[in-house]
Automatic annotation (TrEMBL):
<dbReference type="GO" id="GO:0005737">
    <property type="term" value="C:cytoplasm"/>
</dbReference>
<dbReference type="GO" id="GO:0042802">
    <property type="term" value="F:identical protein binding"/>
</dbReference>
<dbReference type="InterPro" id="IPR045869">
    <property type="entry name" value="Arna-like_SDR_e"/>
</dbReference>
<keyword id="KW-0961">Cell wall biogenesis/degradation</keyword>
<dbReference type="GO" id="GO:0033352">
    <property type="term" value="P:UDP-D-apiose biosynthetic process"/>
</dbReference>
<dbReference type="Pfam" id="PF01370">
    <property type="entry name" value="Epimerase"/>
</dbReference>
<feature type="domain" description="NAD-dependent epimerase/dehydratase">
    <location>
        <begin position="18"/>
        <end position="289"/>
    </location>
</feature>
<dbReference type="InterPro" id="IPR050177">
    <property type="entry name" value="Lipid_A_modif_metabolic_enz"/>
</dbReference>
<keyword id="KW-0520">NAD</keyword>
<keyword id="KW-0963">Cytoplasm</keyword>
<dbReference type="InterPro" id="IPR036291">
    <property type="entry name" value="NAD(P)-bd_dom_sf"/>
</dbReference>
<dbReference type="GO" id="GO:0048040">
    <property type="term" value="F:UDP-glucuronate decarboxylase activity"/>
</dbReference>
<dbReference type="GO" id="GO:0102765">
    <property type="term" value="F:UDP-D-apiose synthase activity"/>
</dbReference>
<comment type="similarity">
    <text>Belongs to the NAD(P)-dependent epimerase/dehydratase family.</text>
</comment>
<protein>
    <recommendedName>
        <fullName>UDP-glucuronate decarboxylase</fullName>
        <ecNumber>4.1.1.35</ecNumber>
    </recommendedName>
</protein>
<dbReference type="GO" id="GO:0071555">
    <property type="term" value="P:cell wall organization"/>
</dbReference>
<dbReference type="InterPro" id="IPR001509">
    <property type="entry name" value="Epimerase_deHydtase"/>
</dbReference>
Length: 388
């Protein structure tokens, strides 16, 4: 069926059925929303959780997408229904993964199984049934920059050749095996190589996405509110939690690592272009990030504190930040990526995509959401009388 939509080359786009694995997570929830609101495509949403897409599955009135999204609660580790769902679809998008750094060194087996072993049947079913696959990898696949091995005062550290990360040229540089932080990156690297080989040897039509710190509403959880009290989410949720509770933000190893952050809504535009432009996206690996939004983690903490003060009307914590060692925060075996600047040449050339939202603006909308969603719940949780 034609959709009235045209691709980047002016050809009509046909409505498709998409098997989205990990649809109930942060990225999946935004992608489902986009597909329901702006396209006629159908989604078979696969996950073990559905809280983040509840508003799409059980809306208060009948929305135009009512018959276009179906939730399938299943664990892809051990469910024979998976192949049937992939066969029923034109495209499979695999987002399922353990992808919080606090797990990489403390649950390395689960991390490796989730990011490599559990993804194997997905690749196999797509290849055997000649179905297109969009697989979510990570920017962490690049590991450390070449520049990080140069002397601290070397002028070459300022040369982009030594730090900009290019899909088709940069090496993947991980630490030693005892630094189990790299279990995730290594598992993601091997599944990328397997998908690439399936493309080369068996003709699998694939696209690999390497997200560079996508952030926004619904990312992870707030410990003790909608996730475990002792849980350690990714940095946006850690710092949001600190701000909501009026506590100092914890800077791991001084907060010197650098990251580029992209707004989830910008990044989802890139994924939709991949979905609807297979001729331009197949066979490619894409960095998806915002090279203009680079900060150190310390600068991120400072900016989040300023933005939160503005959106909440509350005074900043008396001690805004404290330093903590990575060993104390994450445990043995943690290591870090020093700097992550995506090269944008390939995505720009193939899909004409560029990120738009500045770091300040994306933090303002995200922290407005965090405050609206969690401030009351935190107040209630912290004012409960202690049992005697
Ligand atoms: P997320 O944890 O919010 O979402 C992952 C979803 O997969 C969760 O809902 C989880 O329940 C589901 N899942 C995991 N294992 C499953 C299984 N065995 N069966 C069924 N469902 C399962 O994470 P996210 O941020 O949305 O990330 C999605 C993908 O993007 C991951 O592959 C991740 O490695 C990659 N990625 C994301 C970022 C980012 O900036 N958010 C950065 C790098 C890579
Ligand atoms: N980090 C921090 N304090 C926190 C949480 C994270 O200083 O409370 C640091 C972490 O050590 C890393 C960066 O923030 O250098 C980004 O961490 P995140 O968990 O978002 O994932 P990563 O970008 O490393 O994949």
């Amino acid at each position: 069926m034609a959709t009235g939509r045209v691709d980047l080359d002016g050809n009509p786009i046909k409505a498709m059925t998409i098997c989205m694995i990990g649809a109930g997570g942060f990225i999946g929830s935004h992608l489902c929303e986009k597909l329901m609101n702006e396209t006629p495509h159908k989604v078979l949403a696969v996950d073990v959780y559905s809280d983040k897409i509840k508003h799409l599955l059980e809306p208060s009135s009948t929305p135009p997408w009512a018959d276009r999204i179906q939730f399938h609660r299943l664990n892809i580790k051990n469910d024979s229904r998976l192949e049937g769902l992939i066969r029923m679809s034109d495209l499979t998008i695999n987002l399922a993964a353990i992808c919080t750094p606090a797990d990489y060194n403390t649950r390395p087996l689960d991390t490796i199984y989730s990011n490599f072993i559990d993804a194997l049947p997905v690749v196999k079913y797509c290849s055997e049934n000649s179905k297109r696959l969009i697989h979510f990898s990570t920017c962490e696949i690049y590991g450390k920059t070449i520049g990080s091995f140069l002397p601290k005062d070397s002028p070459l550290r300022q040369d982009p050749e030594y730090f900009v990360l290019k899909e088709d040229a940069s090496p993947c540089i991980f630490g030693p095996i005892e630094k189990q932080r790299w279990s995730y990156a290594c598992a993601k690297q091997l599944i990328e190589r397997l998908i690439y080989a399936e493309g080369a040897e068996n003709g699998l039509e694939f696209t690999i996405v390497r997200p560079f710190n996508w952030i926004g509403p619904r990312m992870d959880f707030i410990p003790g509110i909608d996730g475990p009290s002792e849980g350690v989410p990714r940095v946006l949720a850690c710092f949001s939690n600190n701000l909501l509770r009026g506590e100092p933000l914890k800077l791991v190893d001084g907060g010197e690592s650098q990251r580029t952050f992209v707004y989830i809504k910008d990044a989802i535009e890139a994924v939709l272009l991949m979905i609807e432009n297979p001729a331009r996206a197949n066979g490619h690996i894409f960095n998806v990030g915002n090279p203009n939004n680079e900060v150190t983690v310390r600068q991120l903490a400072e900016m989040m504190t300023q933005v939160y003060t503005k959106v909440s009307g509350e005074a900043p914590p008396e001690t805004p930040t404290i330093d903590i060692s990575s060993k104390e925060f994450y445990g043995e075996g943690y290591d870090d990526s020093d700097k992550r600047i995506p090269d944008m040449t390939i995505i720009n050339r193939q899909l004409g995509w560029d990120p738009k939202t500045s770091l300040w603006d994306l933090l303002e909308s995200t922290l407005t959401y965090q405050h609206r969603t969690y401030a009351e719940a935190i107040k209630k949780a912290t004012s409960k009388p202690v049992a005697s």
